[in-house]
């Protein structure tokens, strides 16, 4: 088990570290909020703990192992981005509050940050003097599922599609 993560990002280099930590996080649409008066964008993500994966797959004995002995962990992670002046979205139905988004990465752009999700969904945050903070909240829980990405080629364009694979023992 690893310690809870707590990071702050203030530039494009820092956001790459945050993006790596949040890769494959599940983000319920109902847990995303933009507060324009505070210039704050917040979300709660179900984060896969990539930092705890070293040797975890080798420790699994297959389906007969109790869930407490599962080789991987997930945890809830609060993400706060301050300095957000505008939010735009693509391929996200705001009326579908049960929608679960799978975060692939966060990119720094000329005028902000782009959260890229599976299935072509994205959220663009136009920012000024921004700061991003992430912090694990609550206790992690065990899981046998480790995210993996298959390459999907359709219409001549390649896209990474997340696939959950069970750990093999």
Ordered list of secondary-structure elements with their pairings:
Layout: E1 6-9, H1 12-22, E2 26-28, E3 32-35, E4 40-48, H2 56-59, E5 72-90, E6 100-108, E7 112-117, E8 122-143, E9 145-154, E10 157-166
Antiparallel strand pairs: 1-8, 2-6, 3-4, 4-5, 5-8, 6-7, 7-8, 9-10
Any overview of this molecule?
The protein is mainly β and 169 residues long. The protein has one domain. Helix content is 9%, strand content 57%. The chain has helices at residues 12-22, 56-59, and strands spanning 6-9, 26-28, 32-35, 40-48, 72-90, 100-108, 112-117, 122-143, 145-154, 157-166. Strands 1, 2, 3, 4, 5, 6, 7 and 8 form an eight-stranded antiparallel β-sheet that branches. Strands 9-10 form a two-stranded antiparallel ribbon. The longest helix is centred in the first third of the chain and has 11 residues, at 12-22. The chain is globular, with a radius of gyration of 17 Å. The protein starts with 5 loop residues before the first strand and ends with a strand. Residues 56-65 and 151-169 have low confidence and may be disordered.
Q: How many H/I helices? A: 2
- CA radius of gyration is 17 Å
Structural class, from secondary structure content? mainly beta
Secondary structure tally: strands: 10
Termini separation: 19 Å
Largest sheet: 8 strands, antiparallel
Residues in β-strands, percent? over 45%
Helix content: under 10%
